[in-house]
Design a protein that fits this description.
With 553 residues, the chain is an alpha/beta fold. Helices cover 38% and strands 10% of the residues.
Length: 553
């Protein structure tokens, strides 16, 4: 059959008209759907086409009316048979098509777009630099007068003023008999707590901390309004993240680099030692019994210069309720392994029933952690040299020789292996008795400590880096950490300047009499044999053979 040129042209015209009509009808339907967006609640889902960029401007005004509720999904409408802008009941969408909230590392096919979708990490670093300069030129309370929505700032007096007010420095230990507890658990401010957590922590920790939903939504960092002992309102905060370990694995350098970020502020110069010592009434590591009352939780959550910098990170952005984008850090690497003398609080146990990980999980389950790991044998040697600087911690035979160090290593290995004859690996790793030797052997059994954190925190809140890799490629490491913390990456020029300034800075200088000039081959061989099964456990836990550090396995 032959079709004339004129006939073919006519068919094309008809096809184009049909397509145009279909698009016009679809547009009308979507327009009607967009009108419904403002009525969406937390029980509804709003569908957009895959080409979200073309749609976002159309729904922008309506999404502002959601007030943080209602979820907008960017999803292929061929999978749901829903037109763009359709508002439907959330329960009608299969669970496997909905994104897992809180997972910052992975996204399912349904990419959540809520009113709070805009994250701090999406905003240019320079924007905050400019804002900080503007705030520094004025008084933060002038900003408060301009924006009444952050009026609560007047309840955040300076640290100096707080010393004159009713924020105690010390507390007493918790007593389950005085709280809402049964034989196993205590119930305080919306939290279910093991009784063991109560007895080893300050009494005011879980009685003063409000329920998580009362944390101020205007802050990216976990903060809340509370009343001091004079019944005055003040602002209190927890760290957004911790550099939690390990000792002598590059945590000091890492801390000072991250602390240069415009949005990061530290709770102290570096180490607070609150969760290893302060909360448990210990002045120094080697005190077998608590020698004082515990440092109050109210004091910890209100102390430090970090709040001043935190309040200067104010910036309003459309698409988020967060007004203060700064975050705070506590960088105490001994927090991960030092719960020494836990046996005092929990007699009769072979291994600790709770650790610092359990305490932090109950304070804020959204906390993030950075672990820095180093070749376990090299870390041991560095730790021994460091801790022998002070007779207050360990008595060390000076000057140290390779032979003396070998004998100390033999003693530490024998002590640990003897412990394993009567106790579990976890019990021996935390045992106060095995911690008494300056060789620091126990703290290189990394997987035991990391696993305790993985039991109570999701993996996407834990970042584990290798010190040797960071040394080889510091830029990639720091950029990845910024992504993990959901803050803007350092501009290249700033990061380069930081590295140049830190290059050559000597940390914790060791005198010659405390240096181990070299390690005997038999010492290395003994330690490699000791750590071999534990490195295998670490590799199995983290899924990468780089954690063998090229040691025999």
């Amino acid at each position: 059959m032959v079709i004339s040129h004129r006939g073919l042209k006519g068919k094309v015209v008809w096809i184009l008209l049909l397509i145009a009509s279909f698009q016009f009808i679809k547009m009308l339907l979507e327009t009607e759907n967009f009108k419904n967006i403002s009525s969406a609640t937390e029980d509804h889902i709003i569908f957009l086409s895959n080409n979200t960029d073309q749609v976002r401007d159309n729904v922008k005004d309506s999404t502002e009316k959601l007030d943080g509720t209602g979820t907008i999904l960017d999803i292929d409408d061929t999978l749901t048979s829903q037109p763009r802008g359709a508002v439907i009941d959330k329960n009608t969408v299969p669970s496997d098509r909905q994104n897992v909230e809180g997972d910052v590392n992975t996204k399912s096919a349904s990419n959540i777009f809520t009113k709070n979708e805009i994250k701090t990490s999406d905003i240019p670093y320079e924007t905050f630099v400019q804002q900080l300069e503007e705030v520094n030129d004025t008084n933060i309370f002038n900003v408060t007068e301009k924006h009444q929505k952050i009026e609560f700032l007047k309840y955040a007096p300076s640290n100096v003023e707080m010393l004159k007010r009713g924020v105690p420095k010390i507390s007493t230990f918790g007593d389950p008999n005085e709280m809402n507890c049964n034989d196993t658990f205590c119930y305080l401010n919306g939290r279910t707590l093991k009784k063991e957590l109560i007895t080893e922590n300050p009494k005011d920790m879980f009685t003063f901390l409000p329920p998580e939903e009362e944390f101020l939504k205007e802050f990216k960092n976990p903060c809340w309004k509370g009343n001091d002992l004079l019944d005055r309102e003040a602002m209190f905060c927890l760290p957004y993240f911790y550099i939690i370990g390990f000792t002598k694995a590059g945590t000091t350098d890492l801390f000072f680099i991250l602390n240069e970020h415009i949005l990061i502020s530290a709770r102290s110069k570096k180490e607070t030692h609150y969760f290893d010592r302060g909360r448990r009434g210990r002045s120094i590591r080697m005190h077998r019994m608590p020698d004082k009352n515990p440092t109050s939780f109210m004091g910890y959550s209100n102390s430090g210069p970090c709040r001043d910098k935190l309040m200067k990170t104010y910036k309003e952005f459309e698409g988020t309720d967060v007004l203060f984008h700064g975050i705070t850090v506590d960088a105490t690497p001994s927090h991960v392994w030092d719960i020494e003398f836990w046996e005092t609080f929990h007699p009769g146990y072979k291994e600790p029933p709770v650790t610092t990980a359990d305490t932090l999980a109950k304070l804020n389950p959204k906390t993030k952690f950075i672990f820095s790991l180093r070749d376990p044998i090299n870390r041991m040697r560095s730790a021994y040299q460091f801790f022998c600087k002070s007779l207050q911690t360990y008595k060390c035979d000076r000057p140290i020789t390779p032979e003396k160090y070998h004998n100390l290593v033999v003693e530490a290995v024998d002590k640990f292996n003897n412990c394993l004859k009567v106790n579990t690996l976890r019990g021996c790793t935390y045992s106060t008795e095995t911690h008494q030797l300056a060789t620091h052997l126990y703290a290189s059994i990394y997987h035991v400590y990391i696993l305790d954190y993985m039991k109570v925190f999701p993996k996407n809140q834990i970042y584990i880096l290798q010190m040797e890799e960071r040394t080889r490629d510091p830029i990639t490491t720091i950029n990845n950490l910024c992504d993990f913390l959901e803050i803007p990456r350092f501009p290249a020029r700033i990061l380069k300047k930081i590295f140049e300034e830190r290059e050559g800075i000597a940390r914790n200088q060791i005198s010659d009499e405390l240096k181990i000039p070299y390690v005997l081959p038999e010492t290395t061989k003994l330690l490699e044999k000791f750590f071999k099964p534990y490195l295998r456990d670490l590799v199995d836990l983290l899924g990468d053979e780089k954690w063998y550090w090229s040691r025999p396995h």
